[in-house]
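ZP: hey, is the uridine-5'-diphosphate complex queued? I don't see it on the tracker
AM: it wasn't, my bad. submitting now with these inputs:
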Amino acid sequence: MLEQIKIGRYCCAPSTQIENFRPLVGDDLIDELLELAKDLRDIRICHINATPFGGGVAELLSREIPILKALKVQADWRIIHGDQEFFSITKSFHNAIQGQEFNLTDDIKHIYIRHNRRSAELLTSDYDVFIVHDPQPAALRYFNKHKKGKWIWRCHIDSSDPNPGVWSFIKPYIESYDAVVFTLEEFVPPDLNVNLVEYILPAIDPFSSKNMELPEDVYRSAVANSGVDMRRPLIVQVSRFDPWKDPLGVIQAYQLVKREKPDVQLAMVGSLAGDDPEGYEILSRVNEESAKDPDIYVFTNLEGIGNMEVNAFQRSADVVIQKSIREGFGLVVSEALWKGTPVVAGNVGGIRTQIPDDMQGFLVDSVEGCAESLLRLLNDDALRKEFGEKGREKVRKDFLYPRMIRDDLRLVKRLVSS
Ligand code: UDP
């Protein structure tokens, strides 16, 4: 059993040019970033999470590490490996920290501890700062013997109202960190006791293959090639198959829209993540629904949907949906807005921060509200265009990588200077 527990190293080249960001985010931000990077040139940073693909954290790290390297900051990305049993447990922890019921048994605690303790033993000590993402590897700090370096726990989920059993189990591990970072102040559990709590909003990379500009004929033909009729309206949700993303609610909202607009189509583009066994169950329920309606398309990374295809779908959609019922941030919202596509989204968590002020009315709390907002946008070309333009500007100002990396490096500098 123990031999299945490994720490992998995921390599990323410095495949980006910092100067390309300057016209987008301005001189002040880029100059501050270059200055911080210079100050931290001798500091070795290690990001640790549980999967190299699928989901927002892998997405963030897959671009953050190359950008840090382009800044000449020494950054590595390490991944804790586990088996199916461990990742089923950590997915349940993820859900429980977002408030779901969970029966935490001694056996489950034991499996979690065993994986984290073993991973902690395998972790080398040659870093100055460890940034550990989400609950899966959260006990690494506690079980790490070297006790060297500064340790940051980065929570990407909505932990404002965690399941009490799981929270009281995991809390001592979290409290062993030097700093804890949440996406929003409202996500901090009430009884958390750590020296330093920070808030950092995620961001997207406008130059990555997922977000880069694409010629209209290219992205439209990519989507047409998948079978979608580009002459008819298209709604798209890009999400893991996860209960918090409410994929069945998306289908219900689409069905209501279809009563008024029979030619509408729905594409559900969803990745399956290495640390998310629950995704496969939910996908099979979505497939059951889609089998009843030829205008519902379901695509996954297993069929080769990659970054470029996600980019094409987000650009080709008339409206993107993100009907989450809990959401730490929801990178997909910024991804769609950056492409000038309007977004109807759940009125929750970090999604709210991304929607432009005068478009907040498109944040929804129900299937019916979602259908109404979709119809309003599908029936109004000028409104879709206005929403898209305002959304892109909001993302340019607040949600591009240089701002997030600046926030991260400010925190690292503060910790290593203390
Ligand atoms: N994603 C993807 N392919 C898919 C579904 C999702 O590449 O089929 C990406 C999506 O573009 C985004 C990330 O996975 O970059 C999901 O991040 P988000 O913060 O929206 O949600 P999370 O999965 O972290 O809850």
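AM: back. The mean pLDDT is 94.
ZP: great, adding it to the tracker
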